[in-house]
Amino acid sequence: TPAPSPASPAPHADLAAQLPALREQYAALQARGLALDLTRGKPSAQQLDLAEPMLALPGEGVHTDATGVDVRNYGGLDGLPQLRQIFAELLDVPVAQLLALGNASLTLMHDAMAYAHLWGVPGSPLPWGREEKVRFICPVPGYDRHFSVCEAFGVEMVTVPMTADGPDAEAVAALVADDPTIKGLWVVPTYANPDGAVVSEAVARRLVSMPTAAPDFRIFWDNAYALHHLTANETKTANVLDLAAEAGNPDRPIMFASTSKISFAGAGVAFLAASPANVGWYKKHLAVQSIGPDKVNQLRHALFFGSAEGVREHMRKHREILAPKFAAVSRVLTERLGDLGIATWTEPQGGYFVSLDVVPGTASRVVELAASAGIALTPAGATFPYGRDPRDANIRLAPSMPPLAEVEEAMQAVATCVLLAAAER
Ligand code: PLP
């Protein structure tokens, strides 16, 4: 049973005076011996079950695609046309410029970075790996695995703040204008990890049209949550490929997406979309690695979803499961911390995360307190390059995986830890 919600301190009360009471509250929390986990942006088993019938597809005896190609055999580097058709509509890109590949978009981002380092991208004076220094702009807070890709290749990370409309475009434009070592920018355009921001059309336009000192500047446009709405308002992402082409910089963005949080996180299909030159570049290098992707899995996806609308319908079922968990996070934070002025948090309209900002200097203490009470939180700093949040203020909450009752219970505990850490200060 969920814990009864402990009474919150009176609004604007002097938290320090409440320290003894908060310590007692925390001791009681510890005594409950909880074991809860808000670290992982994974779909829950209930969500995975939505796609369970897919495991019976394509089914024995069904092994040709709509054009009669035998999916069991080698070939088809671009991916199954049937599936590319469906996702081209969803991602708002031409089918010819969309590749359907393996099971993880992270692999495609990593490989794009690797190819750029080994051979350069179209327009590169040198392979990035032979440049003295390569830097990428990382909007913060951001996705730790983007940072890991940069770190693995020795790409230096420069941060800019996120805004409600996406990366601070003026800060980005100022950095890229006269620094040719800045070769790229990470963007999660829809329901960003972790703050849920959606890139506005104005920001997208600015990013694809700003002058860059590097002739081979790339935006890694990671549209991981393009279809992952938490409300009936199904936000449409700015059409970055069209905007870039209009601005005369067609090769600037490379879009990534996947069905990791649509079908199965471990057995989905990943997509890459970009200008014809970029797609040709990617395929040229991919062709050395692979004769073709897993077309059986791609056919399974195409048959299960049937159409773009089939995918949208499916995502509405995900929303029914996820929305109450996000509502619980918001409700508990509002009830417990609402008007104390010690924390702010996002109210995402989609995606998988809530970004919580606590009293500067206390995020790692909150995570530590939570851990000692049996609540696993993403390590403080994880949303910043090199794991260092200069303000030690940001915590990423991931409510998708635990059952609703556990999300509520864990959030009550998090609120207690935020209050105690603030009072200790
Ligand atoms: N990009 C973002 C922003 C994510 O949050 C995640 C997963 O959490 C991924 C990419 C991973 O995508 P994939 O499973 O397609 O590798």
Please supply descriptive tags for the structure shown above:
three-stranded antiparallel β-sheet, Aspartate Aminotransferase, domain 2, binds pyridoxal-5'-phosphate, alpha/beta, 13 helices, Aspartate Aminotransferase, domain 1, eight-stranded mixed β-sheet, 2 domains, 39% helix, 13 strands, 425 residues
Distance between the termini: 32 Å
Structure ligands = pyridoxal-5'-phosphate
Quick check: average pLDDT? 96
Shape, principal axes of CA atoms: globular
Largest sheet: 8 strands, mixed
List how many beta strands DSSP finds: 13
Q: What is the N-to-C order of secondary-structure elements (H for helix, E for strand)?
A: HEHHEHEHEEHEHEHEEHHHEEHEEH
* Topology-level CATH name of the largest domain: Aspartate Aminotransferase, domain 2
CATH class of the largest domain: Alpha Beta
**Count of DSSP helices?**
13
CATH architecture of the largest domain: 3-Layer(aba) Sandwich
- Cα radius of gyration in angstroms: 23 Å
User: What assembly state would you assign to the polypeptide chains in this entry?
Assistant: single chain
CATH superfamily of the largest domain: Type I PLP-dependent aspartate aminotransferase-like (Major domain)
User: How many independent structural domains?
Assistant: 2
Give the structural class: alpha/beta
Percentage of residues in DSSP E strands: 5-15%
Pfam family, one: Asp_aminotransf
Protein name: Transcriptional regulator, GntR family
GO molecular function: L-aspartate:2-oxoglutarate aminotransferase activity
InterPro entries: AspAT_Ic (IPR024551), PyrdxlP-dep_Trfase (IPR015424), PyrdxlP-dep_Trfase_major (IPR015421), PyrdxlP-dep_Trfase_small (IPR015422)
